[in-house]
Amino acid sequence: MTPVELSRTVLHAVRRAVDEGELAVAVVPERVVVAPPGPGGCGDYATNVALQLARPAGQPAPAVAELLRTRLLRTDGISDVVVTGPGFLNISLAGGADARLVRDILRAGPRYGHSDALAGQTIELHAAPEVRALVLMDAVARVLRAQGARPQLHCTRPPEDAWVRVLGVPEDIHVRPGRDALRPVPAPVDPTPLGRDAARWALLHPAPHDRPRIGDEHLVQRESNPLFRVRYAHARSRAVVRNAADLGFGPEPGPVNAASALHQALADHPRVLAASAAHRAPDRLARHLVAVADVLAPLLPSVLPLGDEKPSAAHRARLALAEAAGTVLAGGLTLLGIDAPEHL
């Protein structure tokens, strides 16, 4: 059920209540505004129609809201209605948990999954003076910042110029003696010829205790390359949003059939970020992005209408889900220090 359809449903409930004598108002509103709940609200949408009708009906707003609540609960597509505050109706749609998840992601943007769990904590990171260790430390620091921490980066010697210039290793690493807590299996060869994105992926995607492969397999644009699958899924998610706009419709969160795996992967993103920070393991984030990309791929062909088909609520819901998945992919790649191009 779209916001327009929900608005009509609430208005129909008002008209029925008036027609059956439960509400004595001279003029029924021409339309009912529904919007995401404000502070103190709940559910998928909220409306203040009961407050608007209270004075004309000569009844307290909570009483009008309760009357409308009873009627709306008998409507297909609505799973729950809660009255809050002075008389706001908070409406949960059937399948609303998935729609709320998508709406939360779209509101948060690339910061979805960020938190203040480590706010106020200064965390010292010490890396071995080796390229993979320093790239790992940079990625760990990015994930820690996403959880509110203030990481301080240390190494026994400054990073090489190429590591800073090509791979994005920070220049402001504190040079001082210390125990190398971040000491992954070193890169077997210099990764800088791969360029920033492929090199960082090659160093970060394997677990720190696994030997990274530094080769052209990270550059090929085919499904055998996990980095390509992640970036291609993101680029396609952006493309369907652009194409939908050209067709005159936009995303609207709602129920999407046969997408439970994608919803679960997106819902798991905050937990993955927290675990990546806690265990100093950005490889967990990298593998999670591959999982999101792989479950997004089957959805994308059904997002846009085919032929003379008109955009429907189902198309808008699938578009919103695809956009949310692309948002998670972009945010995750950014935390790994890897570009998320909109065209690939």
> Structural class, please?
mainly alpha
Determine the mean pLDDT: 93
End-to-end gap: 34 Å
How are helices and strands ordered from N to C?
Answer: HEHHEEHEHEHEHHHHHH
Helix content: 40-55%
Strand count: 6
Q: Which ranges are low-confidence, i.e. pLDDT below 50, for 5 or more consecutive residues?
A: none
Give me the side-by-side strand order of the main sheet: 1-3-2
Largest sheet: 3 strands, antiparallel
Number of helices: 12
Please report which band the strand proportion falls in: under 5%, 5-15%, 15-25%, 25-35%, 35-45% or over 45%: 5-15%
Shape: elongated
Radius of gyration: 25 Å
Considering the chains and any ligands shown, give keywords for the structure:
3-stranded antiparallel sheet, single chain, 344 residues, mainly alpha
Description:
This protein is mostly helical. Helices cover 46% and strands 9% of the residues. The chain is built from twelve helices and six strands. Strand 4, helix 5 (131-146) and strand 5 form a beta-alpha-beta unit. The two termini are 34 Å apart. The model has no long low-confidence stretch (mean pLDDT 93).
